[in-house]
Design a protein that fits this description.
Elements: H1 3-7, H2 11-14, E1 17-21, H3 27-32, H4 34-41, H5 43-49, E2 57-60, H6 75-85, E3 89-93, H7 97-100, H8 104-117, E4 120-121
Parallel strand pairs: 1-2, 1-3, 3-4
């Protein structure tokens, strides 16, 4: 990690939780693409490297294996959006943007809320 990247994480971010969103669209993907799921959970180590204590990293994996086209059908994603909006999250982590939001409006809503609450996205 270079110095510039590390400077983006401030003490203010570290006072809030890091939220790791883990998702595969179907149970078949969960069972057949275990490496992807493992890589998603491994993002915890990235948050630790950036300064978050392990007990301040919230893993949201309730949508794992759950097919949904809209955010309202994914309770885990809604939880992330709610917690970010309440100012409780310093960083949202996800392996792929498509895992965070299934369409542009969901993604842009999350980006806007993160900007308003000064929440980082990794």
């Amino acid at each position: 990690m270079n110095r510039e990247q590390h400077q983006k994480v401030t003490p203010r971010h570290l006072k809030r939780a890091a939220m790791l969103y883990v998702r595969q669209s179907t149970m078949r993907q969960v069972f057949e693409n275990t490496e992807r799921t493992t890589r998603q959970y491994a993002l915890r180590d990235r948050a630790v490297a950036l300064g978050w204590p392990r007990d301040e990293i919230v893993v949201v994996d309730g949508d794992l294996g759950h097919t949904a086209t809209a955010a309202g059908d994914r309770e885990g994603f809604e939880r992330v959006v709610t917690e970010v909006g309440m100012g409780r999250v310093g960083m949202v982590l996800g392996l792929e943007v498509s895992r965070l939001a299934r369409n542009s409006s969901d993604w842009h809503r999350l980006l806007e809320i993160c900007a308003l609450t000064e929440t980082l996205i990794l």
